[in-house]
Protein: Bifunctional protein FolD
Organism: Oceanobacillus profundus
Amino acid sequence: MSAEVINGRELSTALKEEMKVEVEKLKEFGLTPHLTVVLVGDNPASKSYVKGKEKAAAETGISSSLIELPASTTESALLQLIQELNDDTTVHGILVQLPLPDQIREEKVIEAIHPDKDVDGFHPINIGKMMTGEDTFLPCTPYGIITMLKSKNIKIEGKHAVVIGRSNIVGKPVGQLLLNENATVTYCHSRTKNLQELAANADILIAAIGKAHAITAEYIKDGAVVIDVGINRLENGSLTGDVDFESAKEKASYITPVPRGVGPMTITMLLKNTIKAAKGLSKIEG
Ligand SMILES: Nc1nc(=O)c2c([nH]1)NC[C@@H]1CN(c3ccc(C(=O)N[C@@H](CCC(=O)O)C(=O)O)cc3)C=[N+]21
């Protein structure tokens, strides 16, 4: 079998078209969704992601601003800035690009962002709401993955989903969202003993390990849905996933590529959350 490729870039383009129409309507009510991105330091990968976010926002009519701070910024200076952004009624969404320099504790920063402006969905209040299934901002990468599955009408209910990786921003929340959709979820990680055996049991396999091409055909059950969350930069500068795409696509029924898979969807869901934040903060229903 050769898998059907779920193209995250194409799906993103379609979703952005829909959002553009919605943003135009909000603008007629005098509401322009506004995202503020804070970038600390000059990590080249972070700079490139931030550019992608600004470009995507502009495409949908969402306004965005970028605050760039030096790598030497103190934690208290950053927390103070976040307080100002929390109080600024023209700012609907706040995103502090991760990772942060060592002198700044990420959890302090995440907890400082007002939960109603937390378009990353990283605040403990929003994570709690996600766990209990309340309406909230969903973390963008997991939200993008669920949206990709639904776009192909892939059934999640009753399926065995195996998540490889347990980060707070991808592994843990994607498992939770799959559980919310009534999947049976297994989490695997660096201490898992029989990774290959567990992975090969998955109907839906989520690879979020951070190691190029770690998941080869032997880890994949015939007909499985394979979602590749890896973004690994090779020495030649090209981008590749955690899944060995060429061998995996011969066994999978659906597969996501890297690039043009989960990455663009992450940004698209950030825009969705920004619109949600703008509507929520302005109490416009829709
Ligand atoms: N507070 C915070 N929120 C984030 O959402 C966040 C973050 N920090 N830190 C870093 C990660 C990573 N991330 C990506 C977003 C888009 C692509 C993306 O669009 N990738 C393109 C390729 C882009 C390229 O060529 O460099 C693709 O896969 O096709 C990748 C990675 C968001 N992150």
